[in-house]
Amino acid sequence: MKRPAIAADKRTKAGGSPRGTEYMDWHASLWPVAGSPDRISGIELNQICDIADLAREDPDVIKLWIGEGDLPTPDFIREAAVASLAAGQTRYTYSHGVPALRQALDRYHRRHWKVDVGADRFSVTAGGVQAIMQAFQAVLSPGDEVIVPVPAWPNLVEIVRILGGKVVPVNYRTAEQGGFRLDLDDLFAAVTPRTRVIAINSPSNPTGWIMPREQMRQVLDFARSRGIWIVSDEVYAHFTYDGTIAPSFLELAAPTDRLIVTNTFSKNWCMTGWRIGWLIYPQGMSTIFDNLSQYNTTSVATFIQHAAVAALDQGDDFIKALVARSAKGRAIICSALDSLPNVRVFWPEGTFYFFFSVHGMNSAYDVARRILREASVGVAPGSAFGQGGEAYLRVCFAVDPELIQEGANRLVDFLRKVD
Amino acid sequence: MKRPAIAADKRTKAGGSPRGTEYMDWHASLWPVAGSPDRISGIELNQICDIADLAREDPDVIKLWIGEGDLPTPDFIREAAVASLAAGQTRYTYSHGVPALRQALDRYHRRHWKVDVGADRFSVTAGGVQAIMQAFQAVLSPGDEVIVPVPAWPNLVEIVRILGGKVVPVNYRTAEQGGFRLDLDDLFAAVTPRTRVIAINSPSNPTGWIMPREQMRQVLDFARSRGIWIVSDEVYAHFTYDGTIAPSFLELAAPTDRLIVTNTFSKNWCMTGWRIGWLIYPQGMSTIFDNLSQYNTTSVATFIQHAAVAALDQGDDFIKALVARSAKGRAIICSALDSLPNVRVFWPEGTFYFFFSVHGMNSAYDVARRILREASVGVAPGSAFGQGGEAYLRVCFAVDPELIQEGANRLVDFLRKVD
């Protein structure tokens, strides 16, 4: 939903000088909205939230719209938070993360990717989204261009806009058999002298695509040669279905490369409501990210950081079980819809999203609302993910297999009718 | 500490084309830091954190440097968080605050200021600092000017810089008897056609000044006539020493005025480590602030929001006791230093800070470090608060009266010697 930007013009015309009663009357009705710059007042309403708000509390709806599983946070993590609260760890702490957590993050990266980052290159943030916000604050100037393969997570795109940057979308390609892929010629052709960042999200929300290691190497080489930054959002790395962890730019990059990797506790440990994530920055930028933590949120809550240490140090088995459960959900929903003639199905390589297109669907937003109304299933419209998403719907399959089976049944019934 | 900005130039010169080995060698040593825009890499290191980091864990130091009391969060608030965690409230929630919290905030404002804001004008943020970040994101464009009475809380100033705005400082005046005051002629004279915001912090950190209601009215009238925003940071409103709550712009403004009020749970309820605050925006801007919450932090942790409801609904007596304790600390430190011939003492009208100047002191930063080393007292250097603060030191007196007495004794001993 765009808001009118009438008043910005009027204000410019009027300049900085005092004005009379007529102006004051006009002010009363239009000022507030008009008071925001166009890039802010023009932010699209988040279509996922918009549809979810229609039936957030309705128990009859099977909710597959939002990017989170249906499990509460494991007990051992909640207990660590309770213990920290009981110990009175409720006061200010280190801006970019308590030492114990930064060390645990370092161990976690050694264990899973065999990379030696060093605790001093981690910054703890209020979720993955705040990691992205700080990453772009650190490197972007107004007018800079950011290349984003699309469809993409809307938050990534809007953060760039909020900071006055320009998003340059590059469409994933699709092949009937091969699913989504990124053509690097497309990516590199989008580069201009104003390109400041290439933003990669692999495994990709919403498409489920995983960037091959060889492509990562080529992107890194290219970015090095042009002085371009890479912001790599790697939050779904564990959610793959071939038994390996997804490749990370960290495996290829030097500590001084212009690379910022963002991540979150939300997905691996069912901590979406905790708002804690992290980023990894190049050597030599610790003062910058210490400052950015201070001036964005001061820190993440002290007792949440201590709970996060428990998640990292004791949570590997939980991740394994969660991914196995997610694999069941993937098999159920993908095979169910694969049987329909009007649905194009690519089995996602990674993430816990199934992104499918329905033949003849004009408005994903309208269809998502119809599915909610007529089939009591909550799905996210592909249009929420921008250019190239209009013909798609996204469901999250990181839920109870019985629930996803019932959701699949309802979707199949609905989609049969619209055939 | 400024970082060199050499590479920004080199990058511009080299343009967008690939470069050879020589460039790559240079890159390895300079790239990361060079990769940030000057306004980011040039952010001053936070001098308060810098000194605090020297002795954060030293039990012999009396720590009066940071803006927080010495009490843990009250049990009833911690228990509410534990109950929410136990109930599994660990998943995503409404971006700009759970309805129960926004309603509790509305009741709180009715109770304390007799204002009728309405729950739909509140947005819950990751602390007061994130409230300020979102406020400026909502209204500022790069190059816009923000007028800030100084000395001021460094975070306010740095947030404006991070967003590409320009801080226009206006010095408080001082009178030997009258303490700090703001001359509105000074304030209004700083306005230019590029002025976008007047930022007021009353009660003021670090000066302890409180803006009189009549001045608020004049600033509001002036801002209305020019289409200028007011961002009013009112986090210390309860910390006054004449028995009344500090005036709020909310008491004077219409719901459509260009006013954003920011606040925090940190100070009133000893929740500095929880990272939760709020802002109040004009009618008609709820989509903008819903989006900004989504794209900055998605939300504040669900169980922290439920704890905050307990703080608001059951915490009035705690605030009263905390302010009474703070009044004792104020009397102890101010009267102790009042006896010294080389110290100029203004008893603060509000906040829990005592901001005093020492005759002949050249560098507040050096003196603060000397006081830490020689007297084992942690104080904040006035230079941390920018222009006009260089001759001052700040201590926080919201601590145990016995502790502040011991701190006062040590300070008096030290300051006698430097006389």
List the helices and strands and how they pair.
The structure is a homodimer of 419-residue chains.
Chain A: H1 6-14, H2 21-34, H3 38-41, H4 47-52, E1 62-63, H5 75-86, H6 99-113, E2 122-125, H7 128-139, E3 145-150, H8 154-162, E4 166-171, E5 173-175, E6 179-181, H9 184-189, E7 195-201, H10 213-226, E8 229-233, E9 259-264, E10 277-280, H11 286-296, H12 302-314, H13 316-338, E11 343-344, E12 353-358, H14 364-375, E13 377-378, E14 380-381, E15 392-396, H15 401-417
Parallel strand pairs in A: 1-13, 3-4, 3-7, 7-8, 8-9
Antiparallel strand pairs in A: 2-10, 5-6, 9-10, 11-12, 12-15, 14-15
Helix pairs in contact in A: 1-2, 5-12, 6-12, 7-8, 13-15
Region (Disordered) (chains A, B): 1-20
Pfam families (chains A, B): Aminotran_1_2
Keywords (chains A, B): Aminotransferase, Pyridoxal phosphate, Transferase
What does this structure look like?
Chains A, B: This is aspartate transaminase. Chains A, B: Residues 60-411 form the Aminotransferase class I/classII large domain. Two copies of one chain form a homodimer. The first copy, chain A, has 419 residues and is an alpha/beta fold. Chain A folds into two domains: 47-73 and 317-417, Aspartate Aminotransferase, domain 1, CATH 3.90.1150; 75-314, Type I PLP-dependent aspartate aminotransferase-like (Major domain) (Aspartate Aminotransferase, domain 2), CATH 3.40.640. Helices cover 42% and strands 15% of the residues of chain A. Chain A has 15 helices and 15 strands. A seven-stranded mixed sheet of chain A has the order 2-10-9-8-7-3-4, with helices on both faces. In chain A, strands 11-12-15-14 form a four-stranded antiparallel sheet. Chain A has a two-stranded parallel sheet with strand order 1-13. In chain A, β7 (195-201), α10 and β8 (229-233) form a beta-alpha-beta unit. In chain A, α6 runs parallel beside α12. The two termini of chain A are 30 Å apart. The relative contact order of chain A is 0.16. The model of chain A is unreliable at 1-33 (pLDDT under 50). Chains A and B meet through α2, α3, α5, α7 and α8 of A and α2, α3, α5, α7 and α8 of B.
